[in-house]
Amino acid sequence: MEADWNACLQTLEGHSNSVTSVVFSADGRYLASGSDDKTVKIWDPITGGCLQTLEGHSNLVISVVFSADGRYLASCSGDKTVKIWDPITGGCLQTLEGHSNWVSSVVFSADGQYLALGSYDKTVKIWDPTTGGCLQTLEGHSNLVTSVVFSADGRYLALCSDDKTVKIWDPITSRCLQTLEGHSDWVRSVVFSADGQRLASGSEDNTVKIWDPITGGCLQTLEGHSNLVTSVVFSADGRYLASGSYDKTVKIWDLITGRCLQSLNIGRALQQLSFDPTSSMRLSTDIGILNLELPNPAPRVILQMGVETTLPARHIGYGLSSDGVWVMKDMEKMLWLPPGYRPGTSVVLGSEVAIGCPSGRILVMKFS
């Protein structure tokens, strides 16, 4: 363990049941947490003070998400509603009702003008978060909707479902533009490339498919995972794709050749993946930042006798070990976490690590 590190440690107590979701605002000023105790809390991650306790849901809070500009906080619940809050005042601005089953996915458009909700009732509803009006109801899937995503410019909305398909919609007119078929099992995740020219989908059939969202054609099928794919993300330049899986690996793919460049042994299934917008060599995850070490401009394909080699994940900066037992800096163990403080959910933002515990505690560490 390093001797020359400093940490500001806060233990945030107040939830009376398991913490289901923790998220930082984009500017890092606020931390929001949702819990099985039916409440949302907003915290100051520096002082550890609870700024707001948001009450009103009649069932557990499944997830919380800030809009990009931080004006709104949305919480979805087992009570089949989504509430929109003012994170400064703690006021409930809107209660969005209309789904007949749990809301599984909540996403703001990049400009914050729209909020899309995917549900186990097989529909997606698009809302105006300012007025609380339901603008569109998108129907057509024959099974529950698992994930919803806007394109960066807001022109398209993609939905994936347990009916094994992905549908692409015009969120303004509510026209279904494409139905993408080809997966042989439930589709768990979907994402647009930054330029909107490609769409990736990850499935319980263990594959990732790359699609042309305009024509609906399947451009590539990426095979190699040995269990369902939970998350997919494009690099900013569109050259690479990262996929996370229940096989406890993250794979990095070259989308020019369709080959797997690296397979990283993470030791757990990751739900959150995003490339650093300035570098394709860094991948942000729910346990920290991973160094991909891909040589540029022609990455080395790691193959031996035609068999892919799985490498240990290399951390950059602060994060968590794959088993949730240690706080890490780079590749070194820094701080051991007692069993009662290990993550049920976690988020890392720069040098800040937030852990939501099954006990209801939240642990926030800021390193310098």
UniProtKB/TrEMBL annotation:
One Gene Ontology cellular component: transferase complex
PANTHER family found in the cross-reference section: WD REPEAT DOMAIN 5B, WD40 REPEAT PROTEIN
Assigned protein family: Belongs to the WD repeat MDV1/CAF4 family.
Annotated SUPFAM superfamilies: WD40 repeat-like
Name listed for the protein in its UniProt record: Mitochondrial division protein 1
Top-level taxon: Eukaryota
Job of this protein: Involved in mitochondrial fission. Acts as an adapter protein required to form mitochondrial fission complexes. Formation of these complexes is required to promote constriction and fission of the mitochondrial compartment at a late step in mitochondrial division.
UniProt key word RNA-binding: no
Pfam family, one: WD40
Organism the protein comes from: Stachybotrys chartarum (strain CBS 109288 / IBT 7711)
Entry keywords, A to Z: Coiled coil, Repeat, WD repeat
